[in-house]
Amino acid sequence: MFFLVDPLDGTKEFLKSDGSGDFTVNIGLILNGYPEMGIILAPAYNRLFVGARNEGAFELVDGSFQPLVPRQFTSENRIAVASTSHPDTQTDDWLSSNKVTKTIRIGSSLKFCFLASGMADFYPRFGPTMEWDTAAGDAILRAAGGMTYSCDNRVFQYGKKDYKNTAFIAKAHP
């Protein structure tokens, strides 16, 4: 069991002069290689997301926790989230080959929160990330009923020797 903490996820978004605010503070708890609990604070948006295995996923809204519910998947209207600051051709190819009709570009672990809260269906990531970038968001997504998979379709795991993630596809609905 160990914590993965990222005190500033979305550094490039934090440093942008446009005030986009797509940065977060992430705290994830890993147990036996799987994300057990996650907390994500998006200070610029005054948003707090939490999730824990067997407890559900929630957003703090007006002083009370509201459940996060992924959207109903439809094969005609596929929505994905993708990185604002780290675009790549592999992601674009995946979006095209999976018939994604809309892509929301956003920074930081907010991409996982968008899946958990019903704003999107997929988050493909082929560029480099570290475990502390994804653990909290992945925990929240799983607590909401979604799942993250490696590209060989195995459930994504944590605790790698160098903490470097492989490519993954996060899904709001497994």
Q: Could you characterize what this model shows?
A:
The protein has 174 residues and is of the alpha+beta class. Helix content is 20%, strand content 38%. It is built from 4 helices and 11 strands. It has helices at residues 11-15, 89-97, 110-116, 131-144; strands at residues 2-9, 24-31, 34-42, 47-52, 56-61, 64-67, 78-83, 100-106, 122-125, 147-150, 168-171. A 6-stranded antiparallel beta sheet has the order 1-2-3-4-5-6, covered by helices on one side. Strands 9-11-10 form a 3-stranded antiparallel beta sheet, sandwiched between helices. A two-stranded parallel sheet has the order 7-8. Helix 3 packs parallel to helix 4. 42% of the residues are buried. The mean pLDDT is 94.
List the defining traits of the structure above.
single chain, 174 residues, alpha+beta, six-stranded antiparallel β-sheet, three-stranded antiparallel β-sheet, 38% strand
Distance between the termini: 25 Å
Strand order of the largest sheet: 1-2-3-4-5-6
Tally of individual helices? 4
Query: Total strand count, please?
Result: 11
Q: What general outline do the C-alpha atoms trace?
A: globular
Q: How would you spell out the order of helices and strands?
A: EHEEEEEEHEHEHEE
Computed over alpha carbons, the radius of gyration is 15 Å
Uncertain segments are none
Q: What's this, in brief?
A:
This protein is of the alpha+beta class. Helix content is about 20%, strand content about 40%.
